[in-house]
Amino acid sequence: MSKVITASNLTKQFGHFTAVDHISFEVEQGEIFGFLGANGAGKTTAMRMLCGLSKPTSGIGKVAGYDIRTQSELVKKNIGYMSQKFSLYDDLKVWENIELYAGIYGMNDKEIKEKTDKLMHELNFEHERDLLVGSLPLGFKQKLAFSVAIFHHPKVVFLDEPTGGVDPVTRRMFWELIYKAAEDGITIFVTTHYMDEAEYCNRVSIMVDGRIDALDSPINLRNQYGAKSMDEVFQKLARKSQRTE
Amino acid sequence: MVSCTDLHKSYGKTMALQGVGFEVNEGEIFGIIGPDGAGKTTLFRILTTLILADKGTATVNGFDVVNDYREIRKCVGYMPGRFSLYQDLTVEENLNFFATVFNTTVEENYELIKDIYQQIEPFKKRRAGKLSGGMKQKLALSCALIHKPTVLFLDEPTTGVDPVSRKEFWGMLKKLKAQGITILVSTPYMDEASLCDRIAMIQHGRFLNIDAPQNIVNQYKNTLLAVRSMNMSKLLNDLRANKLYENSFAFGDAHHLSIESEKLEIKKLEEYLVGCGHTNIEITKIEPTIEDCFMELSKI
Q1: Which of residues 3-32 of A touch B (CB under 8 A)?
Q2: Which pLDDT belongs to residue B159?
Q3: Is the dihedral of CA B161, B162, B165, B171 positive or negative?
Q4: Gap from A108 CA to chain B (nearest CA, Å)
Q5: pLDDT of residue A245 exceeding 60
Q6: Given this model, what pLDDT does residue B202 score?
Q7: Residue of B nearest to A197 (CA)
Q8: What is the reported pTM?
Q9: A179 and chain B: CB distance < 8 Å anywhere?
Q10: How many CB atoms are closer than 10 A to CB A184?
Q11: How many CA atoms, within 13 angstroms, populate the side-chain half-sphere of residue A57?
């Protein structure tokens, strides 16, 4: 198994404030890795470093085989990213959104066309192809946004609270897409506030005050903390936080 | 305290509300539970007199939302989904501003907001725009309460908030309820339903059901099973592959299988799964969660 993400003592300071405090972990290819933590624990800062958007103060990070400090442009080329807030352009059509993103990632027209046909078929979106994304229901948009994020077949995709606000059935269908992508060898790095979704991950880390306080499979974490659910594990750990946000 | 009948509202072709009616009693925590786009915000905007319904009537505290909108605005507190305080005013200035607009002072109603406001008071000189998510939420709640409203409308106060802070927030609502304030709160998190006295489940502008959370659970028609095996991802596919068990969904560490009680033979299910090559099979009858109920009701 190859390591797709390696973080070793990764640290980020803003002035006197240490947002991310010497975190170390590895994520393997095809793994679904849940990155949990309370608001203000440092998740976003850590994720921005791993995506090559922010340079670490100290420590080493490698993503998709590239150094996040010295090769951040190559990191960006080899990852996918999706968040609840930023995903697609509402005033572009479905196929236009795909073409735009695929083009930015340097895919050629023939490849884009073939893959778009295949994707529309797989998602059962053939009738929506020429519709404006803004006119689609939220569940549709989320699925499309995820598919666009992995359209260039990145080694790893970062998902920042991808399922916020969607209905329970759509939320589960979305996770089925995640499973499928993982089976295709794409590594999934995901944050969520739904603790039932933490159970769907192969392994989960929990950040408290900039540190990773726990990292294991959900079942091992539940056993280790004598908890019935991941929600209980989270409540036990995150309550220790000293940060006043 | 709040009552409405047959509310309709469309935006162009989009029908946001398609005939919604309910009543909220004094001192109740009433939850509107549903996904984004279900119509929650539209409903709140009508009840807080910010927009007009196309059809139907509504009263808040006995006042009509159309004719007596001025009276309603005096006696309700509203915390919109998007942070709407003045980002470039400090914590303290925001609170004073809202108190002044409602012809009162912070001192006069300090008792009511004390528990909440004390947590952000150390930062009272900080601009609201510079606060963290949790602190913004506490400030917004303080501002919505400063004129001592009789009814409080909270539109998705916990969206995007982590599980620990969400629990804290619901603790605050319990205390406000104890002071006699009626609370209408909307949320996309189904697990928060059990913290309400009664809930309305909303989808596509219609209510699926209105009742106490436990009653909704009790009304669940089918039998619900939690199924586990060594290979959870294959298990879900195998369950769905069989017509009888196709109503299966991943639910945290187990799959939930909903099946008509008379069609259920646990032995048969077990045999089927053994036949598919599963090991360490666990099948348990369980009580449905609100999310199970929502999924069941929204199917029809």
Answers
A1: none
A2: 85
A3: positive
A4: 35
A5: no
A6: 94
A7: B252
A8: 0.85
A9: yes
A10: 10
A11: 15
